[in-house]
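Entry 14. Ran structure prediction on the chain below.
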Amino acid sequence: MVRRLCCGFSIRIGSTGVFFKRHGRRFSSQGGSMRILHLADLHLGKIIHDVQLTDDQSHILDQIVTIARDVRAEVVCISGDLYDRSVPPVSATVAMDDFLTALLADLGIPVILTPGNHDSAERLSFAGRLVRSRGLYIAPAIGQGVSPVVLEDRHGPVTFYPLPYLDPLQLRRSVDDLEMASFDQAFAAVIAALPSAAGRTVCLAHCYTQGGITSESERPLSIGGSSLVDPSHFRSFHLTLLGHLHRPQKISDTVFYAGSPLKYSFSESDHRKEVALYDLAADGSFTREVITLRPLRDLRIIRGELADLLAQADNDPARQDYLWAELTDRGALFDYAAALRAAYPNLLNITRSAWNPDRAGEGGIEIRSKSDQQIIASFFRHVTGSELSQDEEQLVLATLDALRADQTGGLL
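Output, C-alpha coordinates:
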Protein backbone atom coordinates (compact mmCIF):
# COMPACT_ATOMS: atom_id res chain seq x y z
CA MET A 1 0.00 0.00 0.00
CA VAL A 2 1.38 3.41 -0.96
CA ARG A 3 0.14 6.66 0.54
CA ARG A 4 1.36 10.16 -0.34
CA LEU A 5 1.82 12.59 2.52
CA CYS A 6 1.48 16.35 2.57
CA CYS A 7 4.96 16.75 4.04
CA GLY A 8 6.63 15.51 0.86
CA PHE A 9 6.91 11.80 1.59
CA SER A 10 5.21 8.69 0.41
CA ILE A 11 4.99 5.64 2.60
CA ARG A 12 4.72 1.97 1.73
CA ILE A 13 3.80 -0.39 4.55
CA GLY A 14 4.64 -4.04 4.04
CA SER A 15 5.66 -7.15 5.91
CA THR A 16 9.31 -6.13 5.97
CA GLY A 17 8.72 -2.80 7.67
CA VAL A 18 8.04 0.81 6.79
CA PHE A 19 9.32 2.47 3.62
CA PHE A 20 9.64 6.24 3.24
CA LYS A 21 10.56 8.08 0.06
CA ARG A 22 11.32 11.77 -0.27
CA HIS A 23 9.62 13.55 -3.17
CA GLY A 24 10.47 16.83 -4.84
CA ARG A 25 13.67 18.79 -4.07
CA ARG A 26 16.54 16.67 -2.78
CA PHE A 27 18.85 17.83 -0.03
CA SER A 28 22.36 18.75 -1.12
CA SER A 29 24.21 16.09 0.85
CA GLN A 30 27.61 14.90 -0.29
CA GLY A 31 27.24 13.07 -3.59
CA GLY A 32 23.56 12.34 -2.96
CA SER A 33 24.33 10.27 0.16
CA MET A 34 21.86 9.73 2.99
CA ARG A 35 22.26 12.51 5.56
CA ILE A 36 21.62 11.29 9.12
CA LEU A 37 21.52 13.44 12.26
CA HIS A 38 22.16 11.41 15.42
CA LEU A 39 21.33 12.32 18.99
CA ALA A 40 20.45 10.46 22.19
CA ASP A 41 19.85 10.76 25.93
CA LEU A 42 17.66 13.86 25.93
CA HIS A 43 16.44 13.06 29.47
CA LEU A 44 13.56 15.51 29.25
CA GLY A 45 12.21 16.27 32.72
CA LYS A 46 15.66 16.00 34.30
CA ILE A 47 16.20 17.62 37.70
CA ILE A 48 19.70 18.40 39.01
CA HIS A 49 20.15 19.40 42.66
CA ASP A 50 16.40 20.24 42.85
CA VAL A 51 16.65 22.48 39.77
CA GLN A 52 14.32 21.74 36.85
CA LEU A 53 16.01 22.05 33.47
CA THR A 54 12.88 22.79 31.43
CA ASP A 55 14.15 26.03 29.87
CA ASP A 56 17.61 24.59 29.26
CA GLN A 57 16.22 21.54 27.49
CA SER A 58 13.78 23.54 25.37
CA HIS A 59 16.65 25.80 24.34
CA ILE A 60 18.83 22.88 23.23
CA LEU A 61 15.96 21.19 21.37
CA ASP A 62 15.29 24.40 19.44
CA GLN A 63 18.98 24.50 18.59
CA ILE A 64 18.88 20.92 17.28
CA VAL A 65 15.88 21.76 15.10
CA THR A 66 17.82 24.70 13.64
CA ILE A 67 20.81 22.43 12.99
CA ALA A 68 18.61 19.82 11.29
CA ARG A 69 17.21 22.53 9.04
CA ASP A 70 20.55 24.16 8.24
CA VAL A 71 22.40 20.92 7.42
CA ARG A 72 19.38 19.59 5.53
CA ALA A 73 19.16 16.36 7.46
CA GLU A 74 17.14 13.63 5.76
CA VAL A 75 16.44 11.67 8.93
CA VAL A 76 16.89 12.27 12.66
CA CYS A 77 17.79 9.23 14.77
CA ILE A 78 17.32 9.31 18.55
CA SER A 79 18.90 6.40 20.42
CA GLY A 80 16.93 6.22 23.64
CA ASP A 81 16.28 7.99 26.94
CA LEU A 82 14.00 10.62 25.51
CA TYR A 83 12.69 11.16 29.03
CA ASP A 84 14.42 11.01 32.39
CA ARG A 85 11.81 8.75 33.94
CA SER A 86 9.15 6.34 32.75
CA VAL A 87 6.29 8.69 33.70
CA PRO A 88 7.59 12.10 32.61
CA PRO A 89 6.18 15.42 33.82
CA VAL A 90 3.82 17.36 31.57
CA SER A 91 6.51 19.93 30.78
CA ALA A 92 8.70 17.17 29.34
CA THR A 93 5.98 15.75 27.10
CA VAL A 94 5.14 19.26 25.86
CA ALA A 95 8.80 19.86 25.00
CA MET A 96 8.96 16.55 23.14
CA ASP A 97 5.75 17.32 21.26
CA ASP A 98 7.10 20.71 20.18
CA PHE A 99 10.39 19.13 19.10
CA LEU A 100 8.85 16.35 17.01
CA THR A 101 6.29 18.71 15.49
CA ALA A 102 9.06 21.06 14.37
CA LEU A 103 11.02 18.22 12.75
CA LEU A 104 8.13 16.32 11.18
CA ALA A 105 5.45 18.87 10.37
CA ASP A 106 7.50 22.03 9.85
CA LEU A 107 10.64 20.57 8.24
CA GLY A 108 9.30 17.29 6.85
CA ILE A 109 12.18 15.27 8.31
CA PRO A 110 11.35 11.69 9.37
CA VAL A 111 12.35 10.69 12.89
CA ILE A 112 13.35 7.23 14.09
CA LEU A 113 13.60 6.71 17.82
CA THR A 114 14.05 3.87 20.25
CA PRO A 115 13.26 3.73 23.98
CA GLY A 116 16.07 3.68 26.53
CA ASN A 117 16.28 2.33 30.05
CA HIS A 118 14.78 5.53 31.50
CA ASP A 119 11.77 5.41 29.15
CA SER A 120 8.62 3.35 29.32
CA ALA A 121 8.61 1.61 25.94
CA GLU A 122 4.89 0.89 26.24
CA ARG A 123 3.98 4.53 26.91
CA LEU A 124 6.43 5.82 24.33
CA SER A 125 4.98 3.63 21.59
CA PHE A 126 1.39 4.79 22.17
CA ALA A 127 -0.23 5.36 18.75
CA GLY A 128 3.01 4.13 17.18
CA ARG A 129 1.30 2.48 14.22
CA LEU A 130 -0.71 5.62 13.56
CA VAL A 131 2.21 8.07 13.59
CA ARG A 132 4.25 5.90 11.22
CA SER A 133 2.20 7.39 8.42
CA ARG A 134 3.44 10.84 9.44
CA GLY A 135 7.11 9.92 9.28
CA LEU A 136 7.63 9.11 12.97
CA TYR A 137 8.82 5.60 13.72
CA ILE A 138 8.99 4.47 17.35
CA ALA A 139 10.56 1.12 18.15
CA PRO A 140 7.97 -1.03 19.95
CA ALA A 141 8.42 -2.54 23.38
CA ILE A 142 10.58 -5.59 23.88
CA GLY A 143 8.91 -8.81 22.78
CA GLN A 144 6.93 -7.13 19.98
CA GLY A 145 9.62 -7.69 17.39
CA VAL A 146 11.83 -5.32 15.42
CA SER A 147 10.30 -3.76 12.33
CA PRO A 148 12.87 -2.21 9.98
CA VAL A 149 12.41 1.30 8.62
CA VAL A 150 13.51 1.80 5.03
CA LEU A 151 14.45 5.23 3.67
CA GLU A 152 15.50 5.83 0.10
CA ASP A 153 18.00 8.16 -1.52
CA ARG A 154 19.13 8.22 -5.13
CA HIS A 155 21.40 5.22 -4.53
CA GLY A 156 18.58 3.03 -3.26
CA PRO A 157 17.26 1.90 0.11
CA VAL A 158 18.83 2.35 3.53
CA THR A 159 17.42 -0.01 6.15
CA PHE A 160 17.31 1.18 9.77
CA TYR A 161 16.95 -1.31 12.61
CA PRO A 162 15.74 0.52 15.75
CA LEU A 163 16.23 -1.89 18.66
CA PRO A 164 14.28 -1.34 21.87
CA TYR A 165 16.10 -1.33 25.18
CA LEU A 166 16.94 -5.01 25.62
CA ASP A 167 16.67 -6.06 29.24
CA PRO A 168 17.53 -9.79 29.34
CA LEU A 169 14.97 -10.55 32.08
CA GLN A 170 12.13 -8.89 30.17
CA LEU A 171 13.24 -10.58 26.97
CA ARG A 172 13.16 -14.00 28.65
CA ARG A 173 9.59 -13.34 29.76
CA SER A 174 8.56 -12.23 26.28
CA VAL A 175 10.19 -14.93 24.17
CA ASP A 176 9.57 -18.60 24.90
CA ASP A 177 12.54 -20.93 25.26
CA LEU A 178 15.05 -18.08 25.08
CA GLU A 179 17.77 -18.56 27.68
CA MET A 180 19.96 -15.58 28.51
CA ALA A 181 21.54 -14.07 31.57
CA SER A 182 23.24 -10.94 30.27
CA PHE A 183 22.70 -7.93 28.03
CA ASP A 184 25.36 -9.28 25.71
CA GLN A 185 23.40 -12.49 25.17
CA ALA A 186 20.20 -10.50 24.65
CA PHE A 187 21.75 -8.36 21.92
CA ALA A 188 23.39 -11.36 20.27
CA ALA A 189 20.05 -13.21 20.12
CA VAL A 190 18.01 -10.26 18.84
CA ILE A 191 20.52 -9.16 16.20
CA ALA A 192 20.90 -12.73 14.93
CA ALA A 193 17.13 -12.92 14.44
CA LEU A 194 16.80 -9.66 12.48
CA PRO A 195 15.51 -9.93 8.92
CA SER A 196 18.26 -9.40 6.38
CA ALA A 197 18.21 -6.45 4.02
CA ALA A 198 19.89 -5.68 0.74
CA GLY A 199 21.99 -2.54 0.56
CA ARG A 200 23.02 -0.27 3.39
CA THR A 201 22.01 -0.91 7.01
CA VAL A 202 21.98 1.25 10.14
CA CYS A 203 21.31 0.06 13.69
CA LEU A 204 19.94 2.16 16.56
CA ALA A 205 20.38 0.79 20.09
CA HIS A 206 20.59 1.81 23.72
CA CYS A 207 23.24 -0.11 25.65
CA TYR A 208 26.60 -0.04 27.41
CA THR A 209 29.30 -1.47 25.15
CA GLN A 210 32.69 -2.75 26.14
CA GLY A 211 35.23 0.06 25.89
CA GLY A 212 32.74 2.83 26.60
CA ILE A 213 33.51 5.66 29.06
CA THR A 214 30.81 6.25 31.66
CA SER A 215 29.61 9.28 33.66
CA GLU A 216 27.92 9.60 37.06
CA SER A 217 24.54 10.57 35.58
CA GLU A 218 24.01 7.27 33.76
CA ARG A 219 21.78 4.82 35.58
CA PRO A 220 23.54 1.43 35.94
CA LEU A 221 21.90 -1.24 33.81
CA SER A 222 22.92 -4.06 36.15
CA ILE A 223 25.32 -4.96 38.94
CA GLY A 224 28.80 -6.05 37.88
CA GLY A 225 29.76 -6.60 34.27
CA SER A 226 26.61 -8.33 33.01
CA SER A 227 25.39 -5.11 31.36
CA LEU A 228 28.33 -4.92 28.93
CA VAL A 229 27.64 -5.61 25.26
CA ASP A 230 30.34 -6.75 22.85
CA PRO A 231 30.44 -4.16 20.02
CA SER A 232 31.33 -6.93 17.56
CA HIS A 233 27.63 -7.86 17.53
CA PHE A 234 27.11 -4.74 15.39
CA ARG A 235 29.71 -5.62 12.76
CA SER A 236 27.07 -6.62 10.20
CA PHE A 237 25.74 -3.03 10.04
CA HIS A 238 27.35 -0.29 8.00
CA LEU A 239 26.71 2.15 10.87
CA THR A 240 25.56 1.75 14.48
CA LEU A 241 24.18 4.73 16.41
CA LEU A 242 24.10 4.20 20.17
CA GLY A 243 22.70 5.86 23.25
CA HIS A 244 23.15 5.46 27.03
CA LEU A 245 26.67 6.82 27.60
CA HIS A 246 26.63 10.60 27.99
CA ARG A 247 30.09 11.31 26.60
CA PRO A 248 30.20 11.44 22.77
CA GLN A 249 32.60 8.70 21.74
CA LYS A 250 33.74 6.32 19.07
CA ILE A 251 33.73 2.63 19.98
CA SER A 252 34.88 1.27 16.62
CA ASP A 253 35.07 2.42 13.02
CA THR A 254 31.30 1.96 12.65
CA VAL A 255 29.94 2.23 16.22
CA PHE A 256 29.36 5.62 17.87
CA TYR A 257 27.67 7.18 20.90
CA ALA A 258 25.99 10.54 20.38
CA GLY A 259 26.23 11.50 24.05
CA SER A 260 23.67 13.65 25.85
CA PRO A 261 22.94 17.14 24.47
CA LEU A 262 23.36 18.70 27.93
CA LYS A 263 25.62 18.05 30.91
CA TYR A 264 23.62 16.14 33.50
CA SER A 265 26.23 15.75 36.25
CA PHE A 266 29.43 17.50 37.29
CA SER A 267 31.37 14.44 36.14
CA GLU A 268 30.44 15.69 32.65
CA SER A 269 31.81 19.19 33.21
CA ASP A 270 34.68 18.55 30.78
CA HIS A 271 32.44 17.09 28.06
CA ARG A 272 31.87 18.87 24.77
CA LYS A 273 28.23 18.28 23.91
CA GLU A 274 27.38 17.80 20.26
CA VAL A 275 25.22 16.13 17.65
CA ALA A 276 26.73 14.01 14.90
CA LEU A 277 25.96 14.28 11.20
CA TYR A 278 26.63 11.28 8.95
CA ASP A 279 26.65 11.18 5.17
CA LEU A 280 26.10 7.55 4.22
CA ALA A 281 27.41 6.86 0.72
CA ALA A 282 26.21 4.33 -1.84
CA ASP A 283 28.80 1.72 -0.81
CA GLY A 284 28.01 1.98 2.91
CA SER A 285 31.01 4.14 3.75
CA PHE A 286 30.31 7.40 5.53
CA THR A 287 31.73 10.69 6.67
CA ARG A 288 31.09 12.00 10.19
CA GLU A 289 30.88 15.61 11.27
CA VAL A 290 30.19 16.81 14.81
CA ILE A 291 28.31 20.03 15.51
CA THR A 292 28.87 21.61 18.92
CA LEU A 293 25.81 22.51 20.98
CA ARG A 294 25.62 25.77 22.95
CA PRO A 295 23.68 25.46 26.22
CA LEU A 296 21.57 28.19 27.73
CA ARG A 297 23.61 27.71 30.91
CA ASP A 298 26.75 25.60 31.13
CA LEU A 299 27.46 23.23 34.02
CA ARG A 300 30.99 23.71 35.34
CA ILE A 301 33.30 23.64 38.35
CA ILE A 302 35.05 26.74 39.69
CA ARG A 303 38.02 26.47 42.08
CA GLY A 304 39.88 28.99 44.19
CA GLU A 305 39.88 30.93 47.43
CA LEU A 306 36.65 32.60 48.47
CA ALA A 307 37.89 36.16 47.99
CA ASP A 308 39.14 35.39 44.48
CA LEU A 309 35.90 33.70 43.40
CA LEU A 310 33.82 36.60 44.70
CA ALA A 311 36.04 39.11 42.90
CA GLN A 312 35.85 37.16 39.64
CA ALA A 313 32.04 37.04 39.70
CA ASP A 314 31.64 40.72 38.81
CA ASN A 315 33.44 40.21 35.49
CA ASP A 316 32.20 36.69 34.74
CA PRO A 317 29.76 36.80 31.78
CA ALA A 318 28.76 33.21 32.58
CA ARG A 319 27.98 33.71 36.27
CA GLN A 320 24.45 32.39 35.60
CA ASP A 321 25.87 28.93 34.78
CA TYR A 322 25.16 25.93 36.98
CA LEU A 323 28.21 25.80 39.23
CA TRP A 324 30.04 23.67 41.73
CA ALA A 325 32.40 25.82 43.81
CA GLU A 326 35.47 24.14 45.27
CA LEU A 327 37.03 26.41 47.87
CA THR A 328 40.76 26.06 48.50
CA ASP A 329 40.92 28.24 51.64
CA ARG A 330 42.67 26.43 54.48
CA GLY A 331 41.25 28.38 57.39
CA ALA A 332 37.76 28.73 58.78
CA LEU A 333 35.27 30.79 56.75
CA PHE A 334 32.06 32.46 57.86
CA ASP A 335 28.86 32.86 55.80
CA TYR A 336 30.72 31.80 52.67
CA ALA A 337 27.76 29.90 51.21
CA ALA A 338 25.48 32.96 51.28
CA ALA A 339 28.19 35.16 49.78
CA LEU A 340 28.86 32.72 46.95
CA ARG A 341 25.16 32.25 46.16
CA ALA A 342 24.68 36.00 46.00
CA ALA A 343 27.52 36.22 43.48
CA TYR A 344 26.56 33.08 41.52
CA PRO A 345 22.73 32.70 41.43
CA ASN A 346 22.77 29.12 40.12
CA LEU A 347 25.36 27.71 42.49
CA LEU A 348 24.41 24.08 43.09
CA ASN A 349 27.13 22.76 45.39
CA ILE A 350 30.07 23.92 47.51
CA THR A 351 32.99 21.85 48.78
CA ARG A 352 36.21 22.68 50.58
CA SER A 353 39.20 20.77 49.30
CA ALA A 354 41.71 21.91 51.94
CA TRP A 355 39.51 22.17 55.04
CA ASN A 356 38.12 19.01 56.60
CA PRO A 357 36.89 19.54 60.16
CA ASP A 358 35.50 15.99 60.22
CA ARG A 359 39.06 14.74 60.51
CA ALA A 360 39.36 16.34 63.95
CA GLY A 361 37.63 13.33 65.48
CA GLU A 362 39.90 10.77 63.82
CA GLY A 363 42.62 9.27 65.96
CA GLY A 364 43.24 12.15 68.35
CA ILE A 365 46.24 14.28 69.23
CA GLU A 366 48.50 13.62 72.21
CA ILE A 367 48.46 16.82 74.27
CA ARG A 368 49.97 15.89 77.65
CA SER A 369 53.58 16.36 76.54
CA LYS A 370 52.97 19.23 74.08
CA SER A 371 53.03 22.97 74.46
CA ASP A 372 50.01 25.06 73.50
CA GLN A 373 51.71 26.11 70.27
CA GLN A 374 52.53 22.48 69.41
CA ILE A 375 48.94 21.38 70.10
CA ILE A 376 47.60 24.02 67.72
CA ALA A 377 50.18 23.15 65.04
CA SER A 378 49.35 19.43 65.36
CA PHE A 379 45.62 20.10 65.10
CA PHE A 380 46.13 22.28 62.03
CA ARG A 381 48.25 19.57 60.39
CA HIS A 382 45.69 16.89 61.26
CA VAL A 383 42.76 18.80 59.77
CA THR A 384 44.33 20.50 56.73
CA GLY A 385 47.16 18.12 55.88
CA SER A 386 49.68 20.99 55.79
CA GLU A 387 51.95 22.94 58.13
CA LEU A 388 51.42 26.39 59.56
CA SER A 389 53.18 29.10 57.60
CA GLN A 390 55.60 31.50 59.31
CA ASP A 391 52.96 34.22 59.40
CA GLU A 392 50.43 31.79 60.85
CA GLU A 393 52.90 30.68 63.54
CA GLN A 394 53.48 34.31 64.52
CA LEU A 395 49.71 34.85 64.68
CA VAL A 396 49.33 31.80 66.94
CA LEU A 397 52.09 33.06 69.27
CA ALA A 398 50.59 36.55 69.44
CA THR A 399 47.14 35.15 70.18
CA LEU A 400 48.46 32.86 72.91
CA ASP A 401 50.38 35.74 74.50
CA ALA A 402 47.25 37.90 74.49
CA LEU A 403 45.19 35.13 76.06
CA ARG A 404 47.81 34.52 78.75
CA ALA A 405 47.79 38.18 79.61
CA ASP A 406 44.01 38.06 80.13
CA GLN A 407 43.82 34.76 81.99
CA THR A 408 45.40 33.60 85.20
CA GLY A 409 44.49 29.91 85.10
CA GLY A 410 43.08 27.07 83.02
CA LEU A 411 44.78 25.56 80.03
CA LEU A 412 46.65 28.75 79.25
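The two ends are 96 Å apart (CA to CA). Will compare against last week's run tomorrow.
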